[in-house]
Amino acid sequence: MNIRTICLAILAHGEASGYDLKKHWEDGPFFHLGGASFGSIYPALARLEQEGLVASREETQPGKPPRRVYSLTAAGSKAFIEDMSAAPEPDVFRSHFGIIALCAPFLSRETVARAIDERLAQQRAEVSTLEPLVESERHSTSGWLVDWGVTQFKNEIAFIEKNRSRLEALAGTAKPGEHLPVCALHDTDTQTAAE
Amino acid sequence: MNIRTICLAILAHGEASGYDLKKHWEDGPFFHLGGASFGSIYPALARLEQEGLVASREETQPGKPPRRVYSLTAAGSKAFIEDMSAAPEPDVFRSHFGIIALCAPFLSRETVARAIDERLAQQRAEVSTLEPLVESERHSTSGWLVDWGVTQFKNEIAFIEKNRSRLEALAGTAKPGEHLPVCALHDTDTQTAAE
DNA sequence: GTCGTCATGTAATTCGTTACATGATTTT
DNA sequence: AAAATCATGTAACGAATTACATGACGAC
């Protein structure tokens, strides 16, 4: 999922300026899906225009700087649909919290407890951003996505609350210098060592 | 979450070569957390060694090329704990499926249906990778993470199965050229247009 | 005799971020 | 008077990927 595709996806909803695109990501409830800086948006739009996938017109507005408004061309629309139809690479979430959970035996109880608290706070914050939208977006385009998000975050919160003591109990259980397999499955070291 | 941190996290479990590190990511059940190529692992290890966070020794093995085995130094251990204690940036998942859900009105029913099927297949594949580990890893370091993953994936599958018709019903509902707000909340265009 | 595994590394390229540069207007 | 908002863009930099280069050994 590159910026180009996200630009096309947002422009499919209607024309927008580079500034608008950034606002959709930063202030919108879907910032999980993106988040991009001007330094990548403007060049991306310029390149899309060069490729003929978007067209732009300058819009002068009184009392404000002129804005360059982009919209999909027919070719852009086609490219967007092709992008959406392409087989997706599996989602990768490089999660700080996941690494902490994996490394709990090497970390102090306080570190683990704090990580759990922070994770819960973060997921709760996401829920309180999205939950008010469930009603207002029920019959809009984004209603489904809002529900998806709320459900995911709530489920994770429930899981962590239920299993936090089990994770905290793992904290600090590795003696200094102790060798633990990352995952017992494919750790050939331990097997070789045992032979 | 950069490669450096993941290297430290895996090396905290015990010494490993660059080749080992890659295997932990690619073949292990935790590839969601990472996935990195040799082109990034080897330079990362070299830099960590320069900084004094890891030490290496060459291990000659009969019939196989010699391997350079890395392990954390005291400074590396400290750096690892600091990295883990640092406040995490909120997880961002740039999800292809999420974008499709958001753009359903602009896509055909077939495209949306296929995307749903692919998503379900993908999440089910993750479950069948992780589920067999629930038992074997129950009392190991990674047990918690395995449970976390299984729960997350199963919950998402359940949600999609329950709500797929609702998403499919949205497909193709936008007329060509129609302007739809990405999210009703902060779409000033529609409000301005309505004034 | 070719392909897969073990093993390390470099170079070119892509993608994106941060910081910088500019400038009018409105709010505090 | 300072700060925030609207608005666009470039340049330097960083992080990671892909592709390339090398080479021995074992399996089929």
UniProtKB/TrEMBL annotation, chains A, B:
Pfam family membership, one: PadR
Source superkingdom: Bacteria
Gene3D superfamilies, per database record: Winged helix-like DNA-binding domain superfamily/Winged helix DNA-binding domain
SUPFAM superfamilies named among the record's database cross-references: Winged helix' DNA-binding domain
UniProt domain Transcription regulator PadR N-terminal: residue ranges: 8-80
Record-linked InterPro entries: Tscrpt_reg_PadR_N, WH-like_DNA-bd_sf, WH_DNA-bd_sf
Protein name: Transcription regulator PadR N-terminal domain-containing protein
Organism whose genome encodes this protein: Terrihabitans soli
Phylogenetic classification of the source organism: Bacteria, Pseudomonadati, Pseudomonadota, Alphaproteobacteria, Hyphomicrobiales
